[in-house]
């Protein structure tokens, strides 16, 4: 019975982590470029009452008798499916149609990656995120620029008074990874490279390396399916209740055993 108590408790703890993950997904259902997480579980060690393959007779072997000791949270997988597009008609809002991430320069000098393309120019014309971190490669919009256009291939151009043709102001590059799901989330809609993600591959949008193209005046929303998350929340609740019932039953059986002594 004691073993059942600890096994069921591990299930309750795992489902609590599952519920925490669902809550975070729902909380970010309206966050631009957010990628939902899915908790993965793994079983814990087994107690071998009878080792599988041990001889029963001279001609037969045992299938074994193993008793599991519960479960635990193993990892949170980042789901990289495409989010819905929302038209904003804002000149500096960009959505990536396909794979890839915008590159962002952080204050400590490291490069972060994001799918959230809600950018704006500073008072000096530098294109930055909502937190003020500049986009890489750096793009500067002149104060007298008009009709700023960002093509699907990342070319930024604008009409400058006194010039007959639009001036090219730079080209936005995207980065991608062998395993985007292995990126490290750090908040602020940002990811960092990790050993699991591999090194970044950079290219212009729509390039030969399979980068997606850009859509000006759109933002990519969260890829959270609210209905699916509510279903997952119900499943987590029922699993938690089932494990708590095991704790109750094991405690009741243990109580009856203690009553035999009296």
Automatic annotation (TrEMBL):
A UniProt-annotated Pfam family: Flg_bb_rod
Domain Flagellar basal-body/hook protein C-terminal: start-end pairs: 215-260
GO biological process: one example: bacterial-type flagellum-dependent swarming motility
Keyword annotations of the record: Bacterial flagellum, Cell projection, Cilium, Flagellum
Coiled coil: none
Limits of the Flagellar basal body rod protein N-terminal domain: 5-35
GO cellular component assignments: bacterial-type flagellum basal body, distal rod
Domain Flagellar hook protein FlgE/F/G-like D1 residues, every copy: 95-158
Places the protein is found: Bacterial flagellum basal body
PANTHER family: FLAGELLAR BASAL-BODY ROD PROTEIN FLGG, FLAGELLAR PROTEIN
UniProt subunit comment: The basal body constitutes a major portion of the flagellar organelle and consists of four rings (L,P,S, and M) mounted on a central rod. The rod consists of about 26 subunits of FlgG in the distal portion, and FlgB, FlgC and FlgF are thought to build up the proximal portion of the rod with about 6 subunits each.
Family: Belongs to the flagella basal body rod proteins family.
Protein name: Flagellar basal-body rod protein FlgG
